[in-house]
Write a structure and sequence with these properties.
Elements: H1 10-33, H2 37-50, H3 58-87, H4 92-106, E1 111-115, H5 117-127, E2 134-138, H6 145-154, H7 160-169, H8 173-179, H9 194-206, H10 209-220, E3 225-228, E4 235-240, E5 245-247, H11 252-255, E6 261-267, H12 275-283, E7 286-289, H13 294-302, H14 305-313, E8 318-321, H15 336-347, E9 353-357, H16 363-371, H17 384-389, E10 390-393, H18 405-415
Parallel strand pairs: 1-2, 1-7, 2-3, 7-8, 8-9, 9-10
Antiparallel strand pairs: 4-5, 4-6
Helix pairs in contact: 1-2, 5-7, 5-18, 6-9, 7-8, 9-10, 12-14, 13-15
Length: 422
């Protein structure tokens, strides 16, 4: 397996063999023309005495000795590597798999995924198999549950969706499991996840999550990068069709009622974005919006001015992963085309491609969602422009109304042309 393409081993092994032969020629030249000529002559005479030239030519003995020395050198290098790997705690049998995986992932496409919630973490868990160049830009305006309590107590950005994304991209299965562990008892701990508390600790210790990003990626062994859309706390504000204004996304579902959300904004509006986020957008091969809640996961990340400006100017195609269903209290009765129009209105750029699921969930699943007022999103009633941008594929997990990570990742990698990589 050490000879597998892409490991970068064969080139150095070839160089070692070539240098070994050149070294052998150099030794021969020095011995035959220098002060050791007498010893070389005695050696040849001694070999000639042992084996008659009629039985085996003298040069074959030299070749055999040279090949034996080369084999011994290769063996010594192999054993040295084995000792070094064991000393660093890496099983020699796993080293080749690890090297191949990292080399393969390093050549993967540069994908920027924007959103939040379980939809984004679901997408990242599928992409991590194909590329190590994923950058997640996560909305951090949530003000409910564990995130809301930590925001209120520490005046920090909401950590919940960040935790989910870190868990999805972590190369440590143990750490990924611990990040999502939710405390069910304990004064002040109940309801919090370990990941949220870890991010809160790093934010407090470093004076903000922006200063702790490098530590987070190193400690959690992230395959890719995860960044908040902004490093300052912000409140999501919605304007409804009946003229009301709602503050705080956690109350949208209960307070929207029969009205519809017309638009959303962040308060304060002039929020900064990390330089790493803006650089990732400029260098992206694809920019993926979603999957996730339209007004509380995808659009909030697009409301950070610098992020919206960079996406509008980016040469990479923008792909919108359409939600599977509407969300009660947020996108009631909105068609797929109206979802796309809302993104275009807030971003200032229409998606180049819309990825739409074609599979139908089981009837009992659909009926359960219908009881809560949710219905399937599809191209029914869509105009010619949207149909021309749509890529329709089966993307469901069997028996569920949830995107399948593997199918979604494969669809994204083929949904739009990639920019040439130098």
């Amino acid at each position: 397996m050490w000879m597998s393409p892409g490991l970068g081993v064969k080139r150095w092994l070839t160089l070692f063999v070539v240098c070994t032969f050149i070294g052998a020629v150099g030794v021969l030249h020095f011995t035959w023309t220098g002060p050791l000529h007498f010893a070389a002559t005695r050696w040849i005479l001694w070999v000639n005495h042992l084996v008659s030239p009629e039985i085996m030519p003298l040069y074959t003995g030299g070749m055999a000795l040279m090949l034996l020395a080369l084999f011994g050198a290769l063996w010594s290098i192999m054993m040295l590597n084995r000792s070094v790997l064991r000393g660093t705690g890496t099983a020699p049998e796993q080293a080749v798999d690890l090297m191949y995986q990292r080399r393969h992932l390093a050549r993967g496409p540069r994908i920027v995924a924007v959103g939040g919630g379980t939809g984004l973490s679901n997408l990242l868990s599928g992409l991590r198999v194909h590329t190590g160049n994923t950058t997640a830009i996560v909305a951090v305006s949530d003000d409910g549950g564990s995130s809301g309590r930590l925001r209120a107590s520490l005046d920090m950005i909401a950590p919940g969706d960040l935790t989910d994304c870190y868990a999805a991209l972590s190369d440590s299965p143990v750490m990924a499991r611990l990040l999502l562990h939710r405390f069910e008892r304990g004064d002040g701990l109940e309801g919090h996840t370990f990941g949220n508390l870890l991010l809160a600790t790093l934010s407090e210790e470093q004076g903000g999550l922006s200063e702790a990003m490098l530590d987070i990626h190193e400690v959690l062994r992230i395959r890719g990068r995860v960044y908040p859309a902004t490093t300052q706390p912000a409140t999501l504000v919605a304007r409804l069709s009946d003229g009301r204004v709602l503050r705080g996304e956690s109350g949208f579902a209960a307070q929207v009622g029969d009205a519809q959300i017309q638009d959303v904004r962040l308060d304060p509006p002039a929020l900064p974005a990390l330089p790493e986020v803006l650089h990732a957008i400029r260098e992206a091969d694809q920019i993926v919006l979603g999957p996730g809640s339209l007004y509380t996961s995808i659009i909030p990340a697009l409301l950070v001015p610098d992020i919206a400006r960079e996406i509008r100017a980016a040469p990479a195609p923008v792909i919108y992963v359409a939600s599977l269903m509407t969300e009660p209290g947020e996108t009631d009765d909105l068609t797929l085309e109206e979802h796309v129009q809302a993104i275009t209105r807030h971003l200032g750029r229409a998606p180049d491609c819309v990825l739409v699921n074609s599979a139908v969930p089981p009837r009992d699943v659909t009926a359960r969602y219908a009881q809560n007022g949710a219905h399937l999103l599809n191209l029914s009633g869509a105009g010619r422009d949207l149909r021309g941008r749509a890529v329709v594929l089966p993307l469901l997990q069997p028996g569920q109304a949830r995107h399948d990570p593997a199918a979604l990742a494969q669809a994204l990698l083929h949904a739009a042309p990639k920019r040439d990589q130098n």
